[in-house]
Design a protein that fits this description.
About 30% of the residues lie in helices and about 20% in strands. It is an alpha/beta fold. The protein has one domain: 3-Layer(bba) Sandwich (Glucose Oxidase, domain 1), CATH 3.50.30.40. The strands form three sheets. Strands 1, 2, 3, 4, 6, 8, 11 and 12 form an eight-stranded mixed sheet that branches. A two-stranded parallel sheet has the order 5-7. The longest helix has 24 residues, at about 195-215. InterPro entries: RraA/RraA-like, RraA/RraA-like_sf.
């Protein structure tokens, strides 16, 4: 990393910055989200935190993906900054990649993924862009989220940045935010809010399980639906539709 010399004025090269430090969440808080569906947690956050469903689960993990965000901002279709992430990410991180909306070039494939899985032991990766080598990656237990696949490869020129705020799946992600993903998709839990959201999500999960059982048994009162329809001005017509 560039060092500022004594007495020397130094301006950071915006677009080519690598931050090695992050404000990290409490590891116990992160672990607490394990086993809670992303949907339950999202419902406790006013339903504002889910990434766009264009980003899909591409692999076959046994459990949810949970970990602190290691953010990567790449130039569209370029993966030099992702190679930098291979050097600096930590075990348990979820790598979150902003590809500036490009969907024409894959950013990563089996070779780089093998290093992240076996050497860096990351918790997962979320890419707002395509990958390749899906014939093998689709069977992996490492959680891999991407927008799709293409054989077209990336450039390696830069610019790019690590551990800066990014936009992924139309959601703002800051370094150290808690990323939670399951087969439904991914949500981002702001680091500073995670301690207060966790007990709400745990309680919601318990209540949601009980609600599913009640609905299955028909032990549910839906009279509130009629009241809501009336309050919102719906007409209930006891007849067939006539053009």
């Amino acid at each position: 990393m560039n060092q500022k010399q004594e007495g020397e004025k130094y301006s950071m090269p915006v677009g080519k910055r690598i931050y090695l430090e992050r404000q990290m969440p409490d590891p116990q808080i992160v672990a607490g989200f394990k086993g809670i569906p992303a949907s339950n947690t999202a419902d406790c956050m006013e339903r504002n935190c889910a990434m766009n469903p264009r980003i899909k689960l591409m692999s076959n993990p046994d459990e949810e993906m949970v970990g602190p965000a290691f953010t990567v901002h790449t130039r569209a279709g370029d993966n030099l900054a992702i190679y930098a992430a291979l050097r600096y990410c930590q075990p348990g991180d979820v790598i979150v990649i902003d590809d500036e909306g490009d969907n024409t070039r894959s950013l990563i494939g089996e070779v780089m993924m093998s290093y992240l899985r076996d050497q860096k032991k990351i918790a997962g990766i979320v890419i707002d862009g395509p990958i390749r080598d899906i014939d093998n990656l689709q069977h992996w237990k490492l959680p891999i989220y991407a927008t799709g696949t293409t054989p077209g490869g990336p450039y390696k020129e830069g610019p790019g940045e690590l551990n800066v705020p990014v936009a992924c799946g139309n959601v703002s992600v800051n370094p150290g935010d808690v990323i939670l993903g399951d087969p439904d998709g991914i949500i981002c839990i702001p680091r500073q809010d995670a301690p207060s959201i966790l007990p709400k999500a745990q309680a919601f999960h318990r209540q949601d399980d009980a609600k599913a059982i009640a609905f299955s048994k028909g032990e549910v009162d839906l009279s509130w639906v009629d009241h809501s329809l009336k309050d919102k001005g719906f007409d209930i017509i006891d007849d067939v539709y006539r053009p």
